């Protein structure tokens, strides 16, 4: 099943092709999606416009933390830990209460995966090609 591009992603890849950025891409069929090789690494095809957008337009802020880890090296745990540390004054991580047998707490880690709380920079950029600069403190990339 190949990933589909929206019109912004297609436009961005077309512009990159005109500028010679995509001329070095090699194609390969992956397990679930078409793959593109870029700068020696293989990526799902739908992520490539986001990567190009980040390389061209991302500007980190001094208050941002970018978690950069190898896949399968404890990234989920690290995201949860850093989310708790950076948001310790925003949420009550020590207590929770039950109302009608349902957890009533505003702590997002009780209801969401850490990957939801700490977004992947490339995926955010895929959805925001013109401005891949999220207004969050924690970001993740592999």
Walk me through this protein's architecture.
- Keywords: Transferase.
- Residues 63-127 form the Sulfotransferase domain.
- Its EC number is 2.8.2.-.
- The protein contains 5 helices and 7 strands; from the N terminus they run H-E-E-E-H-E-H-E-E-H-H-E.
- The model has no long low-confidence stretch (mean pLDDT 79).
- The radius of gyration is 18 Å and the shape is elongated.
- It has helices spanning 7-18, 48-57, 75-86, 114-117, 121-127, and strands spanning 26-29, 34-38, 41-44, 65-68, 97-99, 102-104, 138-141.
- The protein folds into 2 domains: 1-57, no CATH class; 59-141, no CATH class.
- A 3-stranded antiparallel β-sheet has the order 1-2-3, with no helix packed on it. The protein has a two-stranded parallel ribbon with strand order 4-7.
- A hairpin with a 4-residue loop joins strand 1 (26-29) and strand 2 (34-38).
- The chain has 142 residues and is an alpha+beta fold.
- Helices cover 32% and strands 19% of the residues.
- Helix 1 (7-18) packs across helix 2 and helix 2 packs across helix 5 (121-127).
